[in-house]
Amino acid sequence: MKITNIISLSLICFAFGNLSAQNPWPKTTETAKPWTRWWWMGNAVDEKGLDKQLTTLNKAGFGGIEIVPIYGAKGFENQYINYLSPEWMKMLQFTTNKAKSLNMGVDMAVGTGWPIGGPQVSEEDAATKMIVQTYTISSGEKFSEKIVLNDEKLKNLKTIKLDIATAYNEKNEAVVLTDKITNEGSLNWKPDSGKWAIYAVFTGKTLQKVKRAAPGGEGYTLDHFSPVATVNYLKTFDKAFGNSNYGVRSFFNDSYEVYNADWTPDFKNEFKKRRGYDLSPYIKYLINNDENEITTRVKSDYRQTLSELILHNFADNFTNWAHSKNSKNTNQAHGSPGNLLDLYAAVDIPESETFGSSIFEIPGLRRDSADIQKSDMPDFNMLKFASSAANVTGKKLTSNETFTWLTEHFKTSWSQAKPEVEQVFLSGINHVFYHGTTYTPADVPFPGWLFYASVNFVPENSLWPHLKGLNSYIERTQSVLQSGKSDNELLMYWPIYDQWATPKGKDIAFKVHNVEKWLQPTPFYDDLKKLGKMGYSLDMISDKIISESKSENQKIQTGKEGSSYQVLIIPELTYLPETTLGDILKLAQNGALIIFQNEPKDVPGNFEVEKRRNQLKSLWNQILFQNQGENVKIASFGKGKIVLSSDVEKGLEYLKIQREKLTDTGLKFIRRQFDGGKYYYIVNHTSKEINQFVPINYTGKQTTIMNPENGDFGVAEMQNNSVRIQLKSGESLILKNSEAVESSISKWKYTEKADAPIILDQAWQLSFKEGGPELPKSRNLKKLEPWTNFSDDPATQSFSGTGIYTTTLNIKKNADDYLLKFDKLYESAKVIVNGQDAGIVWSIPFEINIGKYLKKGKNTIQIEVCNLMANRIRYMDQKKMVWRNYNEINFVNIDYKAFDASNWKVQPSGLDGEIQIIPLYWTK
Fold it and tell me: Pfam families given for it (predicted)?
């Protein structure tokens, strides 16, 4: 199939449409292009540097930037600018003005480094934790201790106060003593009998400060559970911004990485208001890890309260504030102890993140175990929390912090990035942010300023000349994935109360980095994996969003702008609120289809348990099930149906919900619906080539194949409800299935056969341009070899940049097309045939169609190869050249140890093995 033709005709077609045919690609916008996180180190920016780097980013195909100030480089302190100072706001205004002139967007973080906080966060508004001290007292004994905080780090803080004091005897009888303790800590109470344990809960502070803070951003981390703290924090931005948003599209909040924050000064009152009872008599059960019913119920209520506080006091206030500035907001909810679905849904752009490297079966895809995170591998079901929240609430964009720590520094190729970002797209994300780009002043030598956890999407990267290949691929793909609405047929309830009922610990943080603890061991996760592999598409839903949903036209409508769904699945669970069951039955009453994997066993929480249990049982007994064979029960309920089966697949089959059988081939997909049709984005991450008719559930009257790598398109060959697909391992395509017929679109060019390849085993010339530390000598080659093979020239071992391989050949041009196929390419190449730019080869399979550029007789082929930065960095470390000299963390390797490349092996660079030109013939 046609692979890459990005620089020349395809860009014209993509922007302006094929001159002879209706262009099926959606109109591109700045959001369709990839954006990048832009670190301002020390805020040491100036107008000249900002102008230059924005222009460079724009030319490389970026649609926008996200400003995140961080720590600075040593030796540049006199150029630092304080965050939100008038000078900083001037630089922001220049940035947004320049970006607007380039049709780029600008987002910015509401803080420096992470998590949010800064000098405006007072001790009172700082992240808060409970501190528990225990005492013993017996009848007849004098209690002479003072019940005061003993923590030396905190005891002098003005905000420390005793919140709760409760005594328990051997029978676990409780006496609340809070009002019997003086300000000095004296206890005015004596037990009548027995031995008692006193639990004293103090409001303490974590003392956590902003990590990687920039000048003017240093200070305490915010108390996300306090509405006063959030409002006070944002007042600093009100002062800096006034009535303007300074051209900022969206204000961004990074992932919740607030450690040990499990309390807030008004928690006790909020708990009683929200849960209906006083926490004070139960404080012992909150502190211990005993596996008993009261502990699980109290902890569930405690965790639910934390969730509601961060939702209403932080997320909602943050959104309202952004809207007051006529801007949007972006939030990474993961890492927090809240219900992720509700937190993501509360903002304009939910954002997830990927961290580490995935395993793919794609032959030739490099994954060196020495260069990847040992403990972190992205779990793309985790990303569905963010995309689900967007889909069910009708938000157009779901963003993702992409490529964080993909590999060791300076060893990431664009071919490695492609399948990773494809997994992101397949999870429902449609607005990727690279992680990322560091601002560098114009006079700073190679490699410029660099961030310690980045893939380094910087102009100094020796692969930069070919980044347009990756960026154009993402732009075309996202133009489709941002069109219309998601088209997932299933909703699955997230049983968060089963998570909250665990007796261990206090707060539970739902992190990207610990899914093996809270997500992967659950039946919910098993369903996600099984149904996805079978070809079903689904979104997740929370109790809150279920309560806001309606059943219309036999579909579940989750919001005015949200998607509609065919079935709601309640996975195997223990706890289900009676209110949620009531909401589910209302949906069924009005026509919805529901599948339960089991009967809910209990209600969560510790308030009026028996009353609510009876309500749950009463509601469940309204469902009059009848056996429908092994492991399937069915009940008509109002206008809808309810299925009870531990086997979700059987339940879906009974309800006649179609799966996409294309996944039986190993292909992965995601669908979007638009007025008059549907898109399928299809990816081949298997180890084999797919060349067959593949069934799809929706074909319309015309199916057009669209190649996101080069913009080609054509009408597909159909057979019944199947489309003919030719996809090599590592490739992807888009199907546009439309009810409208566009007769001007030509047929898709399928490769019917290939003649014996022409092996380019003749002599080549090798020369060099762009890069350093110095250009190697030009040379004539008897055969293709990487330039790093020529150790007689030391420059070849240290060079990072562009090497040019040139040869000539005679060809008898009689095939329909010719495919140039690389055996080994380190790492990407621009192909020039007879002086014409044929495109960039940057992803697996390393091949490109060049037939339109060849002629009969003599042809000249020039291949400009870019290699990794690694060899040059190795050289610099061997020579002990100073290139990393930053405040704070300075620069670390993938294991967070001091970075040193001096012992690295030389990375192969250039071309190796055979290059073939394969004559192709299309189906007539």
Answer: Glyco_hydro_106
- CA–CA distance, 132 with 321 (Å, rounded to integer): 35
For residue 21, name the pLDDT band (cuts at 50, 70, 90): low
End residue of a domain, out of 704, 729, 748: 748
- Position 14 pLDDT exceeds 50: no
Block residue for tokens 């915010």: 222
What's the CA angle centered on 490, arms 487 and 493, to 5 degrees? Answer: 130
Q: Which residues of 601-622 are buried (b: 16+ CB within 10 A; e: fewer)?
A: ebbbbbeeeeebeebbeebbee
Q: Tell me: do 621 and 665 sit in the same domain.
A: no
Asked whether the beta carbons of 655 and 641 are under 8 A apart, the reply is yes
Encoded tokens for 166: 């409760």
Does residue 768 sit in the same domain as residue 713? no
Residue 46: other Cβ atoms inside 10 A = 15
Round to the nearest angstrom and report the end-to-end CA distance of the chain: 15
* Domain that includes residue 861, residue range: 758-868+907-922
Distance CA 508, CA 853 (A): 60
For the ranges 19-33, 85-99, 379-393, 750-764, which has the lowest average pLDDT?
Answer: 19-33
Task: Answer yes or no: is 617 within a domain.
Answer: yes
| pLDDT surpasses 80 at 7 | no
Q: E strands along 102-142, which residues?
A: 105-109, 117-118, 128-138
Q: Please give the pLDDT value at position 369.
A: 86
How many helices and strands in the chain, by DSSP H and E? 21, 44
Q: pTM for this one?
A: 0.96
Identify any residues that bridge with 570 across adjacent strands, giving them in sequence order.
596
Q: Please report the pLDDT score of residue 22 as a whole number.
A: 84
